[in-house]
């Protein structure tokens, strides 16, 4: 278990789907709930339950008498510019600000909150079950101990990669930030195709879900690369080969994935504001 004591007081701004997922992972990994302050005008019901059950402090506006060790900004990019100036008072000499907002650049974050050690990061919702992946980039004010602390926080909910080139974060967002949605949509599409092939609804859904769960777990546990795992399913001239001739054909998955990732990366750049 990672020692997250140095991460408190931790102020989480925005306790929605992403902030909530990370918080659930941190609490699971020993973050002291009494050291957490949540700022959210109207947290979703499941979060309100967690707040009450774990004794966290919930406020609807930034407290005036607190300097945070870590401020995690997890509001929508569209409201970040309005929220950031109000957080400036929480920043003390040791504070590190970690933003998860898609598109919001380090420059833009600093323009909002003022001069501070800031990490721009892109996590994903599997953080909720400790299986996320986050890519992070730091501004010049982030010290080595702060980087170690942020790495510990992010590592408590999954894998962590640091990059030096901020521009990469748009493509990261398009691959791993949004990526879980692509996989969930794959489950939906497989179930629908199963229904159209004649399976009863419930069975089609069960098969699609269990297949992606199992394939994901196999990928997680196996030392083999995805191409080898794919080949292991594919008998010569068998059923999988017939399907892959479609999926890996000219109008198959790759051009669609290229277009989807390009669209998401473009949107990330637009969200800079
Ligand atoms: N969802 C995901 O998979 C990922 C999201 N992100 C990023 O995380 C951020 C949050 O996204 P997500 O969790 O999906 O969105 P949500 O809408 O679920 O969460 C945002 C939360 O912030 C609250 N909020 C709104 N205004 C304020 C305010 N002034 N002060 C404090 N809290 C406020 C919202 O309340 P209300 O609903 O009442 O407006 C909501 O509870 C975004 O910037 C997104 O780009 C990054 C990676 C993955
Ligand atoms: O859809 C979004 O904009 C956010 C960022 C990555 C995942 N969800």
Automatic annotation (TrEMBL):
GO MF, any single term: pyrroline-5-carboxylate reductase activity
Location(s) in or outside the cell: Cytoplasm
Main location: cytoplasm
Name this polypeptide is given: Pyrroline-5-carboxylate reductase
Listed pathway(s): Amino-acid biosynthesis; L-proline biosynthesis; L-proline from L-glutamate 5-semialdehyde: step 1/1
HAMAP family xrefs: P5C_reductase
Catalysed reaction, written as an equation: L-proline + NADP(+) = (S)-1-pyrroline-5-carboxylate + NADPH + 2 H(+); L-proline + NAD(+) = (S)-1-pyrroline-5-carboxylate + NADH + 2 H(+)
Function: Catalyzes the reduction of 1-pyrroline-5-carboxylate (PCA) to L-proline.
The organism's place on the tree of life at top rank: Bacteria
GO cellular component: cytoplasm
NCBIfam families: proC
Entry-linked Pfam families: F420_oxidored (PF03807), P5CR_dimer (PF14748)
Family: Belongs to the pyrroline-5-carboxylate reductase family.
Single Gene Ontology BP annotation: L-proline biosynthetic process
Origin organism lineage: Bacteria, Pseudomonadati, Pseudomonadota, Alphaproteobacteria, Hyphomicrobiales
